[in-house]
């Protein structure tokens, strides 16, 4: 796991500083002001996620069972890249006022860009656009297969997802109330309905996406007033 972590209040597992829910049991994690993350931890965690880019990996929780797969978290390439990008964005903002940090950011950015470009070109036979299309097609096949084997998401999965989204929404409202707009936007990044098994799920996806966009527009208006 990362250099510095958040501990889940339910299962006790270590989680990345930017995670809002436990990677194993999905319990909501304590909120953290990104400004409180030290430069050292920010660099260490950014470097770790950038280093992991390009290859999926798995991590075991405190109650992991290799036979049943319980508490085994699998990270896919696109998910790893997304987390790495979040850290790089935070590091970029902070490095603007810190010369030493700026040099570190530039080195990590070069590595990040080379991994991103190299990976797409590799799967596309030297063509980045073709690589992106192949990636999309591969993801489509995986999702289609999962739909055929699982039919549709269960009611319990739906309830868990809605509970997660409402928890994130509450956190966003609290951050906006305290004028902590930067952290509100970071939390909003994760406020996406993630179940995609049936047509009814598309309604939820669009509903939560509109709600997310509404909060983003509100934050922009509040910032302009201030």
Q: What proportion of the residues is helical, as a percent range?
A: 55-70%
**N to C succession of SSEs:** EEHEEHHHHHH
Strand segment count: 4
Number of helices: 7
Total domains, how many? 2
Largest sheet: 2 strands, antiparallel
What coarse outline follows from CA principal-axis ratios? globular
Strand content: 5-15%
Give a verbal description of the structure.
This protein is mainly alpha-helical. It has 2 domains: 1-150, no CATH class; 153-226. The chain has 7 helices and 4 strands; from the N terminus they run E-E-H-E-E-H-H-H-H-H-H. It has helices spanning 39-52, 77-95, 99-123, 128-150, 155-177, 181-189, 199-225; strands spanning 5-7, 14-16, 57-65, 70-75. The protein has a two-stranded antiparallel ribbon. The chain has a two-stranded antiparallel sheet with strand order 3-4. A hairpin with a 4-residue loop joins strand 3 (57-65) and strand 4 (70-75). Helix 1 (39-52) runs antiparallel to helix 2 (77-95). It starts with a strand and ends with a helix. The model is unreliable at 123-130 and 139-155 (pLDDT under 50).
